[in-house]
Amino acid sequence: MKELVEVIAKALVDHPDQVTVTETEREDAVVVSLSVAPADMGKVIGKSGKIARAIRSVVKAASVDMEKKVVVEIE
Question: Which residue, among 44, 38, 39, has the nearest Cα to 10 in the 3D structure?
C-alpha cells in the first residue's frame, strides 16, 4: 500500500522529492502516513477533501485481499 500512495501523491504535487510515506502495522489495521511539502498540502487534500477521499477509496479497493483494515493519514 505504501508504494500505491507514494505514486498517487507524487503525481499530484509540485515537489515530488518531498513526499514521504511510512507504513505502520497495528493489531487491527495498517496505517499509511503521507507527508508532503506545506505548499502541496492543498493539492493532496483537494477542495472539501475530495482528493483525500479519493486516495482513501483507491487504497481501500486495493486492500480488499488483506485481512487488516488500511488507514491513510495525511500529515
Answer: 44
Domain of 13 in residue numbering reads as: 2-74
Pairing of strands 29-35, 20-25: antiparallel
**CA dist., res. 55 & res. 49, Å (int):** 10
Q: What SS3 class is residue 29? A: strand
The pLDDT tens digits for 14-48 are: 999 999 999 999 988 999 999 999 999 999 999 99
State the cell numbers at 26. Answer: 497495528
CATH of the domain at 18: 3.30.300.20
